[in-house]
Amino acid sequence: MQEQQPATRASGLTTGPLVAAAALIGIGMGGFIDGIVLHQILQWHQMLTAKIPATTVLNKEVNMFWDGIFHSFTWLTTAAGIYRLWRLVFTRKALLSNKLFAGGLLLGWGLFNVVEGILDHHVLVLHNVRELSANTDAWNYGFLILSFLMLAAGWFMIQAERKRLKVY
């Protein structure tokens, strides 16, 4: 995407559609990074390992099934974000900005991590960030802190670019 020159409100273009599309893609990509890196490559946890420890083949299969459901959600969310991005670029009704897009991606990824971290790690206790650890709480809270920092960084990037573009 090419950077646009600062625009005024009178242009009729807004930043919201690009941020929304990027945030959806960021949510999906955050889920993919979690699922691929933490679940599959590092094998720190699976979707239900705090409830169903992966100690038998059957338990592994149950966890793998729910990991698949989780990956289906992330795929659908990413596809929805790509569709929204395509529509806004095709209709030319939104300001395009690399900084807005990057901020939206980071906002979405941080949002995914915050929601997933609070629900899965603290409320439902489906799994811990690092299941086989002497201090699972440190990993879970560290994950949340990093997630809130990502969310805030995305938000501030978006606000700074909106200010630069003079579109609020």
UniProtKB/TrEMBL annotation:
| Segments traversing the membrane | 12-33, 68-86, 98-119, 139-158
The superkingdom listed in its UniProt entry is Bacteria
Pfam families documented for this protein = DUF2243 (PF10002)
Keyword Ubl conjugation tagged: no
| Keywords, sorted A to Z | Membrane, Transmembrane, Transmembrane helix
**What InterPro entries does the annotation carry?**
DUF2243_membrane (IPR018719)
- The name on file for this protein is DUF2243 domain-containing protein
Q: Which organism is it from?
A: Pontibacter qinzhouensis
